[in-house]
Amino acid sequence: MDSSGVKALIFDVFGTVVDWRTSITRQGQEFGKANGLKADWEAFADSWRSKYRPYMDKVRSGELPWTNLDALHRMALEDVLGEFEIHGLSEETKAEFNLAWHRLDGWPDSAPGLWRLKRRFILAPMSNGNVALMTNMGKYAGLPWDCILGAELARHYKPDPESYQTAVDLLGLKPHQVMMVAAHQGDLLSAQKVGLKSAFVPRPMERGPNNKPDPTPDPSFDVVASNFVDLADQLES
Amino acid sequence: MDSSGVKALIFDVFGTVVDWRTSITRQGQEFGKANGLKADWEAFADSWRSKYRPYMDKVRSGELPWTNLDALHRMALEDVLGEFEIHGLSEETKAEFNLAWHRLDGWPDSAPGLWRLKRRFILAPMSNGNVALMTNMGKYAGLPWDCILGAELARHYKPDPESYQTAVDLLGLKPHQVMMVAAHQGDLLSAQKVGLKSAFVPRPMERGPNNKPDPTPDPSFDVVASNFVDLADQLES
């Protein structure tokens, strides 16, 4: 595509930039060892993640007032610990484990690709994760963001149009000057409705080897790239 | 001081991190050359900057609705052009010149000091400048921010307490875990009232050689440093 009018790339993060499943599973194993707990930590990670959308939808529907993702993760953790029959942990121990979401590793191409893209574009996360979560993760995983955008600044979770529009407004740009990058087609289709450009970067291993998503990209996407280095190649960055 | 509890440093920017006067003067000279205009561009820079506070106070008092700094700079530019009897410029030319504030150079120690401080602390601007302005300036001047905070995210200009409190909240920290760094004592005293730590870094040349501020630091400041490299030394970073 002709990307000469694009000034900023904004990224979905969980799954697109970082491998949450492997990272949460590993931290679960460490947490289990430190606290003398046994569990299927891969299943634990999947369960924790699965509660993200229903909790978020309670905020989107107005059933819950604005609540940031750290706090939603903390509520969901309580549910998952119950499911796995893990009881008696201190509040401090649970609060610290909840920060596992701040310590997720990038896919191998994420940081190298972002460093190349950064030479030409403004780069920002456009995640449902809150500012502190994204800031800490950026430092942990070496992600060279130029600024942190996302749902918390709009007080609207994706895919509400306000979430994308607020990012565009804070950048001082027009929607067509901003490209959304995501591994999730619904996220891109929602961003397109606000006028953003779209780049699809499938991450087939996000949910593990037995749960691969349909890889067929919607024909409306401006770019389809196999990873962030390929994205930099295609955007001549 | 014992800085072991400090997690984030947030910075005043205009004057503290960047040398706005030299940068605006230089861009004024270039603007004059490109448009066949003669003026005392140092006086022009001083006049433009002098209108910043009265316009901001109109927002703080409620006389103007929330208006970001790019828009206030644009209103002030109109006034300054009138004062200097510069007429007939196109809207596009004026809008482009207004972005001069996005292209300010750091003091010589700013980027090297920030890179050292970044190893240990979260670094963010806490400026009255808007997110786009700070993001573009960060890229232009090579300032390695971890996230962009500031008045626009609170919709309250400094020194309103909401401006500092919003930064602390978005970082997910307590006020005593955040240190405000500024060349302006009033900014630090206002941040202290919200519970933040304070580091004074005087910039005697901010307003030029003939307009040096009183260098005596208020005894309440936690740190007084001669520049950002000295600040990194004192914070053992």
Poorly predicted sequence stretches spanning 5 or more consecutive residues of chain A: none
Q: Give the quaternary arrangement of the chains.
A: homodimer
- Which architecture name of the largest domain in chain A does CATH use? 3-Layer(aba) Sandwich
| Estimated radius of gyration of chain A | 18 Å
Number of domains of chain A: 2
H/E element sequence of chain A: EHHHHHHEHEHHEHEEH
Q: Write the CATH fold name of the largest domain in chain A.
A: Rossmann fold
- Strand portion of chain A: 5-15%
The percent of residues in helical segments of chain A reads 40-55%
Q: In one word, what is the shape of chain A?
A: globular
Could you describe the 3D structure shown?
The structure is a homodimer of 237-residue chains. The first copy, chain A, has 237 residues and is α/β, with parallel strands linked by helices. Chain A is built from eleven helices and six strands. The first copy, chain A, has a six-stranded parallel beta sheet with strand order 3-2-1-4-5-6. In chain A, helix 7 links the parallel strand 2 (122-127) and strand 3 (149-150). In chain A, helix 1 crosses helix 2 (41-50) and helix 2 crosses helix 4 (69-83). The relative contact order of chain A is 0.17. The interface between A and B is medium-sized, with 22 and 22 residues.
